[in-house]
Each structure stands twice: as C-alpha cells, then as structure tokens.
Design a protein that fits this description.
Length: 288
C-alpha cells in the first residue's frame, strides 16, 4: 500500500537554518483539490480522451450488455481564453463521428512523469472530467489553428485537415479527482472548481519536473534519505507548486511507493525561484 510522508517540521527548520530561508509556521503548504484539479489541466498539453461509439458503428456481435462501446486516444489540447479547453483532431478521427452522435466525452489528465515511466504504472492522482464538446465554426477555424500551433507545432503538416472543439469549464458535467494513495476518490463540486485559483507555477510545472527528474534525479533520492528517512531505489517528482514538491519514492526491494511532500521554506513566486529554493536544499545535503 502506498505510504505518505511529509517534510517534518524539524527538517524544514534545518533547511531554513542551513540555507538561510525563512517561513511562517502558520502558512498552508498544501493545495486544496479543486485548485490542484485546475492546476493539473493548466500544466499539461495532452490528455486521454474517450468518446462513445454510436450503435450503428459497433461491430456485429458486440455484447452491449457487458461492454461499454468506447474509443480512447491521446488528445492534444490548449487553453482557450483561460476558462475552456480546445482540442484538435483530423477529420477522419473516430472521435469526430462519435461526437457528432454524442457530444459527451471523458478526459483524463495525468501528472507529468519521465517518459520512460508511464503514469499508468504509478500510484499517482489523476483527474477525470466528463463534458460535452462544442464544435468550432469554420469562421473561427483559422484563428483556432494559429493558436493551436503555438503549442503543438508538430501538427503543422496536418492542421489543414483538423477540426476543433471547445469545452468550457462552466459546462463540465462531472469532475472526479482520483487519488493515488488508496484513499476514496473525491467528486469536485463544479462551483468549487470554477472559483478555485490555479497555482502560479502550473504553466511551468512541466519544465520544473523535467529538470528535477533529469539533472537532479540523484539529488531527489538523497533528499528523501535526508528528510524522509528513506533512500529510495527510484524517486520521481510528479508535482510542483509554489508551496512545495511532491515525490514518489520506491524503497529498495519493495514494490510499494511512498508519497513524500516537501514543503518549501518560503513560497516560490516563479519557476526560477522554485529551482533556486530546491538547489539551495540540495546544496545542504551531505555528500554521498
């Protein structure tokens, strides 16, 4: 079973003493789930989209009583006006015919992980959202394509054959936060989600995690050893916000992962400030 640890008060005081940082003891160092849900969407550029296959498109002999007629694929998206998603796909994608019949789709958002470790193999939190997709008119298609290509330049050879859909936050039908720690999943109230404020680092979270899991992979392991009393065989940073870092650590010879939260000594106002605080903490670690 997945264990959970927090950066101890003693450890935080030690980091502040040795690295010269300060912090208020009353400061909240974790995020509420509605804010995490909104931040996760902002931090990614793709998700898994599942659409519902119309009856006339199902294969003969399909057991409709025991199997859901679903089609899923990786779907690139961008934020449109800050309060809706926009997805793009080729006209021959099965999703297009499915959405024409039933506009309701499911999107699953996973935290960023190293490419060699699929998120489905890790006990990570995930966000599942059900919503109707609204097709964009031809009148705004060119503008939509230009916006899409700013974030997905690899689509340029195919974008002339793309259709675009929009999913406003206010029309999200169901928002489910799936926990990775074995606890019960939590339904997120749509009003709570709409009113939540995304973390200031959400749009740069991917760059932060890529750096930590690449250049500082060894330091992550020793950070766990120094402040969480475990030297893992593997450590994966999967969440970064202005208040702290979340790491999955796997102890040697054990299959269970430990979820470790490292609150920062002070809030990080930018990607650069976050990295500065983390490298300061790394510099305080005993030499291997």
């Amino acid at each position: 079973m997945l264990g959970t640890m927090r950066f101890s008060k003693l450890a935080r005081r030690e980091v502040r003493r040795r690295c010269g940082n300060s912090s208020s003891p009353s400061r909240r160092t974790y995020m509420e789930i509605p804010a995490m849900a909104k931040s996760l969407i902002l931090s990614r550029k793709s998700c898994t989209m599942t659409s519902f296959m119309p009856p006339h498109m199902r294969e003969d002999g399909h057991d409709q009583d025991s199997h859901l007629p679903l089609y899923g694929s990786i779907m690139p998206y961008i934020m449109d006006d800050g309060s809706s998603l926009m997805v793009g796909m080729t006209r021959d994608s099965p999703h297009v015919a499915h959405i024409d019949y039933n506009a309701l789709v499911s999107l699953v958002f996973n935290p960023v992980t190293p490419t060699i470790v699929p998120p489905s193999q890790l006990p990570l939190p995930r966000l599942n959202v059900m919503m109707p997709m609204e097709p964009l008119s031809d009148a705004v298609r060119e503008h939509a394509a230009d916006k899409f290509l700013k974030y997905h330049s690899g689509a340029r050879p195919y974008v002339d054959n793309y259709v675009f859909y929009r999913a406003p936050y206010e029309k999200f039908a169901e928002i489910l936060w799936r926990r990775g720690d074995g606890k019960e999943n939590e339904m997120v109230d749509r009003d709570d989600f709409l009113n939540a404020t995304a973390d200031p680092l959400a749009s740069t979270q991917r760059q932060i995690l890529d750096l930590l899991n690449g250049q500082y992979a060894l330091q992550l392991r020793f950070l766990c050893k120094e402040y969480a009393a475990v030297l893992p065989s593997s450590a994966i940073a999967y969440w970064a916000d202005q208040e702290g870092l979340q790491v999955l650590a796997q102890p040697p010879n054990k299959s269970a992962w430990i979820d470790v939260r490292f609150p920062l000594p002070e809030p990080a106002s930018s990607q650069e400030a976050f990295i500065d605080l983390m490298t300061a903490a790394f510099s305080c670690l005993p030499k291997a």
